[in-house]
Amino acid sequence: MSLLRLENINTFYGGIHALKGVTLEVNEGEIVTLIGSNGAGKSTTLKTISGQVKPKSGTILYNGKDITNTPPHVTAFDGIAHVPEGRRIFPRLTVKENLEMGAFSVKDRKVIEERMERVFHYFPKIKERLHQKGGTMSGGEQQMLAIGRALMMQPKLLMLDEPSMGLAPIIVEQIFEIIHELNEEGMTILLVEQNAFQALQIAHRGYVIQTGEIVMTGPGQELLVNEQVREAYLA
Ligand SMILES: Nc1ncnc2c1ncn2[C@@H]1O[C@H](COP(=O)(O)OP(=O)(O)O)[C@@H](O)[C@H]1O
Ligand SMILES: [Mg+2]
Prior knowledge:
235 residues, Rossmann fold, six-stranded mixed beta sheet, four-stranded antiparallel beta sheet, globular, binds adenosine-5'-diphosphate, binds magnesium ion
């Protein structure tokens, strides 16, 4: 069943036509990746879904409901977690406080503790750093914290914007393993990446976006061996 569906989405920044009739869907239980070069419209796609940016036309359906033009705090409440490009953790708050911010809508202390334990299961390093300021952590740890913070809201749909950006290969490997594990446990994931090779390896399906248009789609394994994809993104 389709959890998320974008139909013919057009998004503008002033005169810049950033998304040109984007249609894509994410089924429940899938990892879907959206790959493309810098400036192709990947982040804009996620921002349009979470409601940070309003599309000029088109429809976004989530869980059967029209969420086009729904503001970010409402899409978050509905279970869409958006881990933005560049992580954006709160540098002056402690790691623990950062995690708590992810569960802002939860009042029950016990539920918060349980969710935090779950995050430690995926990211044991976070537990060691709990009382440290977020900003003092390495890039990889901050990315883990950003994902951990998103997990604190127990999302139905986890959207990740270039989680591998600027990280050492070994850390990227770990992060992709965790994305894979989260999905194995049932989480639906929309993964935006310039790192097409890694993303296609773990994705059930992929979409290629080029200057605001979806130009190709197919199973991850097929795109991985596709000549055009290889030439443009895997060289
Ligand atoms: N806030 C903004 N104001 C104006 N143009 C923007 C803004 N954000 C993105 N753009 C433009 O929209 C296009 C898509 O950008 P973006 O979605 O960030 O691409 P990607 O994430 O694939 O690198 C680019 O041409 C970019 O310059
Ligand atoms: Mg981007």
